What we know:
CATH class: Alpha Beta
CATH superfamily: RelE-like
Order of helices and strands: EEHHEEEHHH
Number of strands: 5
Distance between the termini: 17 Å
Strand content: 15-25%
CATH architecture: 2-Layer Sandwich
Low-confidence stretches: none
Radius of gyration: 16 Å
Strand order of the largest sheet: 1-2-5-4-3
Mean pLDDT: 87
Shape: globular
Amino acid sequence: MPEVERNGWTIRAHALVLDQFEAWIVEAEADHRRQVAAGSGEAVRPGRAAKLAVSLRKLMLADVPANPLDARYRHGGTERIPLHFFRAKFGNGRYRLFYQAKREHGRILFAWVNSDRTLRTYGSKADAYAVFRKMLDNKVVPQTWDELDRAIGQAETTRLREMAQPPGAP
């Protein structure tokens, strides 16, 4: 199955990123069902999880691929995160999407996105940067380009292609 491409970049994503995206989708669907069941007669509005899923999808498929090496995605060594990782902020600055990108490979490898349990909170042990650093140290997330690239398999490629489909597409 072909990989997802945007703006000349091949996009790949680790299962950890796709798992979080899918968790937000499940939560958004449950929120939607609750709102419909409540039957207030008002239009159903997207909740927090739906907004986060939409933001993550846009970051991965539009914003980051527009220029993944842009200076705004550099983190400057925060919390001892290796400089070859970039990060994109979203969700009022509380969420971080970590990735690697190499022009010579023409690929972006999305590694991890934090959840509600690991919001950006300066100095906290549950801070997104601190948790990501521990994940790298414990090899939950591969640290090098080659290891991360190898960790992303066909299943993740299929899941990313599904994520890349327009909402409501078959």
